[in-house]
TrEMBL record:
Active site residues per record: 298
GO MF annotations in UniProt: oxidoreductase activity, acting on the aldehyde or oxo group of donors, NAD or NADP as acceptor
Keywords attached to this entry: Oxidoreductase, Signal
CDD domains, sorted: ALDH_F15-22
Transmembrane segments: none
Name by which UniProt lists this protein: Aldehyde dehydrogenase domain-containing protein
Source organism per UniProt: Eucalyptus globulus (Tasmanian blue gum)
Residue span, Aldehyde dehydrogenase domain: 61-527
Signal as UniProt keyword: yes
Membership in a protein family: Belongs to the aldehyde dehydrogenase family.
Signal peptide boundaries: 1-17
Keyword Signal found: yes
Amino acid sequence: MAFWWPLLVLALAYALCRFLLMLIPPNVPSIEVDTSDVVDDGGQARDNSFIYIPPRGRTQQADRKVQCYEPATMKYLGYFPALTTAEVEERVAQARKAQKIWAKSSFKQRRQFLRILLKYIIDHQELICEISSRDTGKTMVDASLGEIMTTCEKITWLLSEGEQWLKPEYRSSGRSMIHKRSKVEFYPLGVLGAIVSWNYPFHNIFNPMLAAVFSGNSIVIKVSEHASWSGCFYFRIIQAALTAVGAPENLVDVITGFAETGEALVSTVDKIIFVGSPGVGKMIMSKASETLIPVTLELGGKDAFIVCEDVDVSHVAQVAVRAALQSSGQNCAGAERFYVHKDIYSSFVTQLSKIVKSVTAGPPLAGKYDMGAICVQEHSERLQNLLNDALDKGANIVIRGSFGNLGEDAVDQFFPPTVIENVNHTMKLMQEEAFGPIIPIMKFSTDEEAVQLANDSNYGLGCAVFSGSQKRAKQIASQIHCGVAAVNDFASNYMCQSLPFGGVKHSGFGRFAGVEGLRACCLVKSVVEDRWWPFIKTKIPKPIQYPVAENGFEFQESLVEALYGLNIWDRLRALVNVLKFLSDQHPSGIKRSD
């Protein structure tokens, strides 16, 4: 007993010291970011802004300008240049010079960069969310959930565990190399490129940037032409934080443009990360094959939301609506197919309808609305076409949400939340990614049927399974072919930034976040060295030295059996033969002892 007391006292003292250290606030400097051209006395837009009418049916590529406007009001925000191939090559070259300096930075310096960012984000949540809302049409609550919380969680995880997962990792050396020490080392790849989508303009920039910079890389990010205004403002935050820690100029860059800009980026970087559609993802892969660089693709999803008969209907219905209307009807890993057990189908649809009936869509900064605008021009027309196809094939609308006060110039940017039943998998709505606030519901009778329906899709990003039995829900989720599964919850995986995020099939491959996402930013190098150098050095056994002895192969046979034989006695007999071969002064051939 006396032996344990000192250990217990030391443990308590250590815990107390750690607790007291936590009470001491870290010394994190504040940064100043120019907001004069994006904020006007806290209002939604400048009074002198005008309504922008984007050209329909064609891109702005020929104009060499990326025009920006608020999708919820159509108020003009300005424009940014569409960079040419030569301009992109120059930006990447500057980032490459900066990376060579940053690769030598300490983890202490990198952590300070993260702390500065975290402090700014926490202190300026409203500003960040308002910028996202204005540029994409989402509500402030959706921006907080999808932009702020996920980014803060990623920064916190990197601060806590990032260095640990980038240090050399020692591995077993196996039987034949027991005298060796084996390890995996992680080095920066160089310049990473990211082409990101518009639906989470803040997080989609910060997510790849944080992993790239913390692992010693530089990164050039092409923001979506639908969210360039917000992306270029968020870039100022990154620049200010990098300057505060003395990082080299041009370590991180944000570029704007269209297809030509993206193609040039793919051609010049050491790895490309893409978030977007399967069609563009295939083109990215084709372009990346020319230089044989690694690619990570996140190409959207058609997530299944499975509801068993033993659930709390009112609770799961509320989660279902949040899952379907996630990010103001701009789904990102959002649920798009709802499968409900036949025994609770009616009650679930009734409860779902009550919630959807209360949902109001409108300009998110002009009033208290549950849902914002559709960001991409003409997308509401595509949603209506998907809905019409389903109705033509026998589906029917259960209920639709309502609109608030919409300006006549922005009517096309809104789509009401819609519950639709009697759907089946012949309908485009159940096969194509909708990216909109539509809740199609199907019945199922058995767990096996639910799994079959969920797997009947070209996509494989995520799923959510709800049951009163956690064991049952886990069993169903384990059979669904996807990269992300939530049991009795939805989208909680992305708040666990220690976990990798990504899909299979047309949802892409590769992973963001977690250890896998962090190390994917690295050159993974296998290293083997002598364990007891210089006392024990590797020498080639005499029988297989050049010129190879006549009994060279017999020596190898015995060595293999001695190392890997299944029977201990056979291995010992083989070891005796190995020793005989090694001790033979005239290795012309030794008969094996059986």
